[in-house]
Design a protein that fits this description.
- There is one protein chain.
- The chain has a two-stranded parallel sheet with strand order 1-2.
- The chain has a single domain, classed as Winged helix-like DNA-binding domain superfamily/Winged helix DNA-binding domain (Arc Repressor Mutant, subunit A), CATH 1.10.10.10.
- The protein is globular, with a radius of gyration of 12 Å.
- The chain has 91 residues and is mainly alpha-helical.
Length: 91
């Protein structure tokens, strides 16, 4: 699949593909992992613009306070919760 997005979005989306099923990361952890430690908000925006959900699993990224954040895929936040529960993530 050829992804279309900004350089930053592609960096985020490619990292998201490495988050294993059943695991979650925070927006801040993703920002640190892509070597942009102060860009947690931009990571959240890249997740929100992800047109490839759930193949690119932005549902595996949550807020630092444990909140779900948003979900750009069909079904919105309810679908994000369903996907995480189906992967045995405790929310």
């Amino acid at each position: 699949m050829i992804l279309k997005g900004t350089k930053f979005q592609l960096k985020v989306w490619n990292y998201l593909k490495t988050i294993k099923k059943g695991n979650v990361k925070t927006y801040k952890q993703v920002a640190i992992a892509i070597k942009s430690p102060k860009s947690a908000r931009a990571v959240a925006n890249a997740c929100a613009k992800n047109p490839y959900a759930p193949k690119i699993p932005c549902h595996r990224v949550i807020r630092s306070d444990g909140g779900l954040g948003g979900y750009s895929g069909l079904g919105g936040i309810k679908q994000k919760l369903r996907l995480l529960k189906s992967e045995k993530v405790r929310i």
